[in-house]
Amino acid sequence: MSIRSPLQRLAGWRIPIALFFFCLSLALTPSLAEARAGSSSSSGGKSSFSGMGSRGSRTYENNNAAPVTRSMTPSNPSATSPMGGTPSPAYAGGSFFQRHPFLTGLAGGFLGSMLFSHLGGLGTGLGFLLTLLIIGGLIFFLVRLLAGRRFATAGGGAMPQSVGAMAAPAAARFRGRDTAVGDADLNAFQNIHAAVQEAWAHGDLGQMRHLMTPEMLSYFSEELTRSASQGVQNIVSDVHLLKGDVSEAWEEGDLEYATAYMRWSAIDYVVRLGRSPGQPDYLVSGDPKTPTEAEEVWTFVRRRGGDWLLSAIQQV
pTM of this prediction? Predict the structure, then answer.
């Protein structure tokens, strides 16, 4: 019977030990997630809605409009749709941690909370020793990983992918299938545009619920609450759509999307609640007599055969 030396027994544990230290380092690394927040005007108004909402797999694409800065659709392409249901197909590129953010976040949070609850931070001598072990474990893991790749190359194994090859899946990611919409759809977009303006001016969330996705409804509700807390109201009247063109339309599973360029004019101003016209502090901003023009890109979504709903707003 052969007797294994301590080094041989330790070698069998090198991979689990390396993985443990790698996960532990993830738990201690500060989050680099980009915080997203939509712009908001202090006086209310729909200008604060620019760059909000979801456009399915094309949410973060450049469509010659202001980028979407506030959305419930994460930048991870495997996001679910704004109307619920199953996720849209997406490319399988990216690292394991990019494709499994919940798993890595759960593991990192558990390890981090367990570590800090027992050690009270890294300021103690034991914490310093643990830091050295983490660094050593990472170095060991990287050395073993590079050595394994060199061995695979020397043994006739598959060559590592080039940078261009690794980037290919991301370039070919799923973005839906292009479709077309008709005049009836464009008329529906124009009607939704007018109805949303009217509902906003009256602060009618009940009406908005029939015109937009739950995500967009939450943004409008938030803005109405902010305006009420500031004691102001945005009044929009005499809305005239000057131009409306569909720039793109596509489908993702049973969802259909369409993005339209909207140029319109309206009387748009903000008043102070509890004041009457003519009082010095009644008008907060805007002009109740002169119409102003606005250019925005609106995206609509519907389930196949259903009614269109406002899904995103971007300024041009």
Answer: 0.59
